[in-house]
Amino acid sequence: MYIGKGVLNWDRKERISDRYGTVFLFFDEWCDKYCRFLDKSINNQHGKLTAKVIKTRKSMHIGDLVRGFFPSTPKVGQKFTLGEGKVFFVGDAVGLVPDDVRDSDWLNPKVLYKLHHQTVELYFEKKEG
After folding, report:
1. What are phi and psi of 69, to 5 degrees?
2. pLDDT tens digits along 14-37
3. Helix, strand, or coil here: 63?
4. Is the per-residue pLDDT at 129 higher than 90?
5. Half-sphere CA count of 110, side-chain side, radius 13 A
6. What is the spatial distance between Cα 87 and Cα 104, in angstroms, rounded to a whole number?
7. Which ranges constitute the DSSP H helices of 1-127?
8. What span, in angstroms and rounded, lies between the C-alpha atoms of 20 and 40?
9. How far apart are CA 82 and CA 70, in angstroms?
10. How far is C-alpha 129 from the chain's CA centre?
């Protein structure tokens, strides 16, 4: 299910806490206006968040120096799984609570740094059963 399109980013608290649990989509590369998610009826459903790259640009983020994660530029058309778990919305962000309820890496930080500041289509794939 398509839930939105925009420039992917996250709040610095996600990096500082190592939670990496939510992301935002911004209207354009200037990151001054949030995109709205199209369908929040998926709240609390189990599944995975995936992103398809539709436009690329160089990320100016320095990365997570402590953990050795750094931005890279993917190719247009590439698809990535951000994570799997129970989807939730908070403010203008979407995230996943993993099944094992761990404290860190709710979403995959290596994937997030590949997608930082890239224009993506975001999808939620409900897990049946």
Report:
1. -100, 130
2. 989 999 999 999 877 766 778 888
3. coil
4. no
5. 2
6. 16
7. 12-17, 109-115
8. 20
9. 16
10. 24
Q: Is the pTM of this model over 0.70?
A: yes
Structure tokens at 101: 């309820």
Buried b (16+ CB within 10 A) or exposed e, 28-54: eeeeeebbebeeeebeeebbbbbbbbe
pLDDT digit string (tens) for 74-116? 999 999 999 999 999 998 999 999 999 899 999 999 999 999 9
SS3 49: strand
**Is 57 in contact with 117 (CB distance < 8 Å)?**
yes
Q: Is 83 helix (H, G, I), strand (E, B) or coil?
A: strand
Return the number of other C-beta atoms located less than 10 Å from residue 70's C-beta. Answer: 15
Reading the block at residue 78, the tokens are 């590439």
Query: If residue 98 lies in a helix (H) or strand (E), which one and from where to where?
Result: none
Q: According to the model, what pLDDT value does residue 9 have?
A: 93
Tracing tokens 């995230």 back to the chain, one arrives at: 95
